[in-house]
Design brief:
CATH superfamily of the largest domain: Gcn5-related N-acetyltransferase (GNAT)
CATH architecture of the largest domain: 3-Layer(aba) Sandwich
CATH class of the largest domain: Alpha Beta
CATH topology of the largest domain: Aminopeptidase
Strand order of the largest sheet: 2-5-6-8-15-9-14-13-12-11-10
Shape: elongated
Helix content: 40-55%
Number of domains: 2
Radius of gyration: 22 Å
Number of helices: 13
Number of strands: 15
Low-confidence stretches: none
Mean pLDDT: 94
Order of helices and strands: EHHHHEEEEEEHEHEHHEHHEEEHEHEH
């Protein structure tokens, strides 16, 4: 279609200037549990904290109106001297996304792929991590590679990655409890009675900046204590990651997207759950609890409060995000599969070497994760 064109943003200020339009489109095009990870606030905070290389934010437009956004950047893989295009947010985003106006997926993917093919001198591998398999995007990109990609020597490899358990919320917490297994229901009620009998229990949700500054530091500490006990670092281990979440949580609070729940026992922080609310979905990003109170199932009790709060605020989904731990499934969450899609150039030695390296890293990470689960 001659009326479709692709525009690339390489300038960060240009991206910031279109933030309002970007977020309006994201809110309309992307399911709410995935949309939070492609808001301009999430992406710009990530770029300020972790960004290196060159922005390659790709916009597909139809008659000058936005049709699709791909929040990409180019970085150099020094070991091979190759250029890798990835999603902004890779590593800490539970979903990656090419945001496309509903009903225009085929047109937008074709335009995007032709542009990437005609500019293949810029990249050796394009890596799109944590695409949801409930989206049409992976299958459309794969079909394009099998059809038109051959003339450019471009192929793709699709592999299953993480699982995100998603809970559809009923109209009331009592209804949810009637649906879960009896042992969770009875344990929840018993532990809550036990806690209130033994301790002065305070449960709350962060409502202002001062409170956030205190609670988030306790979350980092509780998270680290819990995972050190399992000989694992946890997702908030790096200072740079903590800095990112301090910045983003502050923005989320201002925008009404933060749902950070905490529990104090006798005035001491015992558990914190860090959730993000976007439109009709609540996403549980992480948290922690004091190991000495683990026998009281305080993580489960606080999770009950977080889910109840989501239901009462009219949320329709509670997404537990990456990781298929048993406690998520006990609440009735259904696993949804993510995938990693990589584009490479079949006749190029450096592209093939980069693909081999990335797949080796995947394998090593999988082995490390299995070993960690055995230790835990």
């Amino acid at each position: 279609m001659s009326s479709v064109r692709v525009r690339v943003l390489n300038n960060f200020d240009e991206f910031i200037n279109m933030a309002e339009c970007w977020n309006e489109c994201i809110s309309s095009w992307v399911p709410p549990n995935r949309a939070i990870f492609v808001t301009s606030e999430w992406l710009s905070t990530w770029w300020k904290q972790f960004g290196h290389g060159e922005l390659f934010i790709t916009c597909v437009e139809l008659f000058g109106e936005p049709l699709a956004f791909a929040p990409l950047f180019i970085r150099r893989v020094c070991a091979l001297g190759s250029n890798l295009i990835s999603f902004i947010g890779t590593g800490i985003s539970d979903y990656g996304e090419v945001a496309i106006k509903p009903g225009m997926e085929q047109v937008a993917v074709a335009a995007l792929m032709r542009y990437l093919a005609s500019h293949r001198y810029l990249w050796d591998v394009i890596e799109m991590r944590e695409l949801s398999l409930t989206s049409r995007i992976p299958s459309l990109i794969k079909a394009w590679c099998e059809d038109e990609g051959r003339q450019f020597g471009i192929a793709c490899h699709l592999s299953i990655s993480e699982v995100c358990p998603v809970l559809k919320l009923p109209s009331s917490f009592e209804h949810l409890l009637s649906l879960v297994r009896g042992n969770l229901r009875s344990n929840l009620k018993r532990r809550e009675r036990q806690l209130r009998k033994l301790f002065d229990v305070q449960v709350g949700v962060v409502v202002n900046e001062e409170q956030l500054n205190e609670v988030i530091e306790h979350m980092f500490n509780l998270h680290a204590r819990r995972w050190r006990k399992r000989l694992q670092p946890g997702v908030f281990f790096l200072p740079s990651v903590q800095c990112f979440h301090r910045r983003f949580a502050s923005l989320a609070l201002k925008n009404g997207w933060l749902a950070m729940h905490f529990m104090k026992l006798n005035g001491t922080f015992a558990a914190v759950h860090y959730c993000l609310r976007f439109d009709s979905a609540v996403c549980y990003y992480g948290g922690g609890f004091a190991p000495e109170f683990g026998k009281y199932s305080i993580g489960t009790v606080l999770m009950g409060y977080a889910i109840k709060h989501a239901i009462e605020s009219k949320a329709l989904l509670f997404d537990f995000l990456r990781g298929c731990e048993q406690y998520k499934l006990l609440w009735g969450a259904k696993p949804t599969q993510n995938a990693t899609l990589r584009l490479f150039q079949k006749g190029d030695a450096r592209s093939l070497a980069t693909m081999a390296m990335l797949r080796l890293v995947d394998r090593l990470n999988f082995i490390a994760k299995c070993a960690a689960q055995r230790i835990g």
